[in-house]
Amino acid sequence: MKPQEPLSLDALTAIDGLLTHEELMIRDTVRRFVRERYLPRAAELFAKEQFATDLIPEIAQMGLLGASLEGYGCAGMNAVSYGLALAELEYGDSGLRSFVSVQGSLAMYPIRRFGSEDQKNKYLPKMAAGELIGCFGLTEPDAGSDPGSMKTRARKDGDSYVLTGTKMWITSAPICDLAVVWAKVDDGDASSIRGLIVERGAKGFETPTIHGKMSLRASPTGEIVLNEVRVPQENVLPGVVGLKGPLSCLTQARFGISWGALGAARACYEAAVAYTRERVQFGQPVAAKQLVQEQIVEMAMDIAKGQILALHYGRLKDAGGITPVQVSFCKKNNVGLALRAARKARGLLGGNGILLDYPVIRHALNLESVYTYEGTDEVHTLILGSALTGHNAF
């Protein structure tokens, strides 16, 4: 009996019928870009630890930098359109999606929400155009899941603040033109966490690259070293004091990650289906074997449920907002299912599953980082546990 054409995941969920014409157009535009401009280079970029900086103008042209923000040259996409775009970017590579997430949710968002009008006008249009690249300085060598224990300090000195400290695991730091750095500001007798915009070229500001990563190799990751960096008063974000500032940025990024991870999962799933349909053992394609079909079905069910969850929360966000707890739920669920899908796909490809000729091992390695950043899986578990039981376990 001749095998039938496999049913696509989009057909399984009938997801297209739930999307507007504009949402479909944005998704399909980014999908073409990733397949035509990024995927032919994806393995080489990963192998050589290189980021495709030459594609930044094209990414900006599609309106993907600060895509969900309003005004100042930003596209003003709704949450669902933005999520769909990130899923397509991560179908290419988590590093590609991370660049867009950091630029929009972690660098542009705090300026848009907490910045002065002068700061917004100075930075946001150029960031939306890809002319200025930003990064987000929160995590430190000894302050990851507990950002309140940060050691970076800013002391008042005349009309400036002097910054000292080190930030770690900072996406886009090596290529950034500016960094939104969160520090404990000593202002008289009080100490509070504030956001400061630090521009490239400031004396004492360095961003060494972190080498030797086995995950997110196609993403530019570095440190931010602050050695008595003088930051003018006008570069302090005036609209927020305390951890509310950086945590609100992380909530925006986590929402995007919950969509992006679905793209990585789908890439692994599609690679596994295509491979098992072609790979013949014992006189049959391995896709005809029951144990293989069981794993394919489990992957498809997981991804389909994740898509429906992300779409539901995207609609809620567009209707007036979702809570940080709901974002944690979506991030934990969807990154977890993506990592399971990558591991299943790696097994189904056998020895070929560890080759960069196929996308699976690249996504599997990348997702190990996605599982950890913007709140570890354990942190999201405790956020949900606290909400569901009323007891804080932190």
TrEMBL record:
| UniProt organism field | Polyangium spumosum
**Superkingdom field:** Bacteria
| Domain annotation Acyl-CoA dehydrogenase/oxidase N-terminal: ranges | 20-131
* Domain (Acyl-CoA dehydrogenase/oxidase C-terminal) ranges: 243-388
Q: Which Pfam family, just one, is annotated for this protein? A: Acyl-CoA_dh_M
- Name the record gives this protein: glutaryl-CoA dehydrogenase (ETF)
Can the keyword Membrane be found in this entry's annotation?
no
Q: Family assignment?
A: Belongs to the acyl-CoA dehydrogenase family.
- Keyword Oxidoreductase: yes or no? yes
What does the record give as EC number? 1.3.8.6
Which residues does the UniProt record annotate as the domain Acyl-CoA oxidase/dehydrogenase middle?
135-229
Q: Which UniProt keywords apply?
A: FAD, Flavoprotein, Oxidoreductase, Transit peptide
Q: Which InterPro entries match?
A: Acyl-CoA_DH_CS (IPR006089), Acyl-CoA_Oxase/DH_mid-dom (IPR006091), Acyl-CoA_Oxase/DH_mid-dom_sf (IPR046373), AcylCo_DH-like_C (IPR036250), AcylCo_DH/oxidase_C (IPR009075), AcylCoA_DH/ox_N (IPR013786), AcylCoA_DH/ox_N_sf (IPR037069), AcylCoA_DH/oxidase_NM_dom_sf (IPR009100)
Single GO BP term: fatty acid beta-oxidation using acyl-CoA dehydrogenase
Provide the cofactor list for this protein.
FAD
Q: In which pathway does it act?
A: Amino-acid metabolism; tryptophan metabolism; Amino-acid metabolism; lysine degradation
Q: Which reaction does it catalyse?
A: glutaryl-CoA + oxidized [electron-transfer flavoprotein] + 2 H(+) = (2E)-butenoyl-CoA + reduced [electron-transfer flavoprotein] + CO2
A Gene Ontology molecular-function term? flavin adenine dinucleotide binding
